[in-house]
Amino acid sequence: MSRLLSVVKGSYGVLRVYLMILVGLVAIAFFINLLLGIGNINRNSEVSSGNIVTIFLLIISGVLPLYFFKRIINLGASRKEYYFGTIIAYIFWVAAFSVFNIIWFLLEQNVFIEYKSYFNIIEIFGWDRYGVIGMFIYQFSTYLFIVAFFNLVFSCFRDRLALGIYILLAAAISVSMSISSLREAVFKGVAILFFNPTILPSTILTFALIGLLFMAGWFFTTRREIYK
Amino acid sequence: MGTILKCTNLAKSYGTTEAVKNIDMTLEENTIYGLIGRNGAGKTSLLNIITGSIFQDYGEVEIAGKKINRSEDIEDLCYVKEKILLFNHVKVMELLEIASAFHKNWDWDFAKDLLKMFELNPEKKFRQLSRGMESHVGIIIGLASRAPLTIFDEPVLGLDVIMREKFYSIMLEDYSNYPRTILMSTHLVNEITKIVEKIYIIDSGKILLHEDMDSFRNKSYYVTGNRKGVENFIEGKNVIQCETQGNIMIAALFDTINDKEMHNARRLDLSIDGMPLQKFFTYFVDGRNHIE
Amino acid sequence: MKASFDDIQPIFQQIADMTEDHILNDTYGEDEQVMSTTQIAKTFQINPATAVKGINLLVNEGILYKKRGLGMFVAPGAKEKILTKRRKMFYQEYVVKLLEEAKKIQLSAEDIINMIKHESEGY
Lengths: 228, 292, 123
Fold this sequence. Notes:
The complex is a heterotrimer. By secondary structure, chain A is mainly alpha-helical.
């Protein structure tokens, strides 16, 4: 267990700079806009800071497979420890940002609304229909899905086998987008996964896919070669 | 004595280049080994395969009796690469803390001593370190982990002569108190001749020779004298290099010379001197390349 | 004390010779502790297994003995043993070589004896 924790700790060591920069920039932008709102200079609606800061999740799903992987193995971790530790880190950050965005969303709805209105993903996708718990579940499963997806993309970065999969995927996406009946089916699928009013089945389905993505990521992680 | 590492018939190619060609290697417990070869001889490729960083095309690696596979942890191993990868923004101390979790024999007291001995400030961030100091971090991890199989790839590359001497002394002392197997690759051949117990010589992906240093000393000689005498003396012996200057001949031998032959040589007015490993290495590897 | 080693003899042999020299010149007396193999390894930067081999050579000849947990000590009568051994070697190692060299540079046995006499008077 302490070995996994060490992986998580190491990942934080690598990530904290990105987190600080991102939080700093978003906070500055937020306060400037809020002040403009209070001073009645600019009352246009803004994208929620709670959403912008969630970009961090995209950063970690790139930085961990691309930058952190070699380094932690260099220090003595096994691939398995790296991978499980990384998944723990993903789950932690996804949960943290889901909770943060809920708090932020409630603040926006109840406090900042006096001066400014915001677009928050929770409202746009209707994730607020089951209260706070619902907001968490919708966000958590959606964010984790995205993280698992990018984790896979970056874990098979240089793999020849993955190149084939990339090409197939790109072809499948462009074909399904250009044929209108297929396009509708794709949108329906996405809606079932992430915006479905019946929360339980869609969440279970999403988690099954997340599991699949992480398993595929593991497959490629065991194939990665570290030269330097 | 038990075996800590056993490689059988390892091979690895990158495209059409064969980096490792059918290598067999068996390392015993509690022994210091030197892996010597020129730059690009395949040292790092071999070590990367042994430690599971890259994968062999065929062949097997066993560490402490366990076959290594792609996912499992190699418990008894500590691998210090030639260049420890930069962990930007992480302090030296944090890095050691992370590394310590992965090594069951890690000794913190020793690690702290090492920090002092290598004049490293643990509060420094990794990006502020010089090339030499980065090497020191790798060396500290390699030594403090006290892993039953510790592998150093070119450990002294970024070190000045004082730090190199320090490293050898500290390693030898700690090894006496906590014996383990250390495999050290290097191209600084002369520096390790007294330090290692056994050597492996690698060139173009093949192990050319492995030998006990003591028995190596017992069979690597220069024979110098008048041409006829030397020619007579070296007949039937394994000569790896021969040079003639007028009537003088110098032959480099890789063969044993018994007492009677020694006596004979003296009578023939031939002088017999020991040959340093570096010279042997040069003749041996270079000579083979000419033949091939 | 010797600080470096030559290339012709195995290092463990040189370690043994060096320790014998220390006993001969009374650096180590009887029942006194000699350098541990760890100290030897560290001081001369040699492999500890080599140091152990050298010291064991002397243990086998009864020149050193081991006290469990304490280290290596000079055996009683060690100096005598070394003297006997070295005297035996002296003829082969020095006299024969001396005469060979003398022959090469055309010195007679008499010349050599005179030299020795002359040198000894200095002492």
